[in-house]
Amino acid sequence: MAEPPAPDELNNPETARVSGWKRVLMWGERLLTAALLVFVIYRLGPQLGALTGVGPDLGRSPEYEFLAFDGTNIRSADLAGEVVVLNFWATWCGPCKLEMPSLQSLHEDRFADGVVVLGLSTDVGAAQGVASFLAERGISYPVGRATSAHRQAFGGVNVIPTTFLIDRNGRVRHRVVGYFAPPALRAAVNRLLDEPVSAERDAYR
Question: Which band of pLDDT confidence, cut at 50, 70 and 90, is reported for residue 6?
Fold first, then answer.
């Protein structure tokens, strides 16, 4: 059995200083762990919510309108009864590039079933550069410019990618910040497609 420290050791300033640093490090580790846990919940929580259908009521979608790069005029009032996937992104954003193929695949597979995939680019460069970027990657769903009004209307979009899933009754059901995992995206869209359209859709027009 170890012997207890001698009284002189307990009163030694150097020993007290080391003990103090150990306490600081211990609390630092606890704070870092708590911060990481909050970050994981913030990022993965919405993904799990999309996958399982569990999540807060985010309210009715704001009205919005934009001119897509292909010349199509997109109006939220025309999308009543559809499941809308609205993605804020940019050409320089790595996670945005990673998730674009899954968005394109969803557009191709489920457009005829009532799924509308839309993109709003936050790029500030020339429109031709964004249009060329889309053409090179074979992106055919409507994409337009994200204005500050668009970003503010959706609660202030400050991180990209950020994706909103809007149900057939015009309510925002999911908001995912960061890369949207394809299984979670598909599960959420399939579930929203199975839900009935209520009388509220008339208020969305």
Answer: low
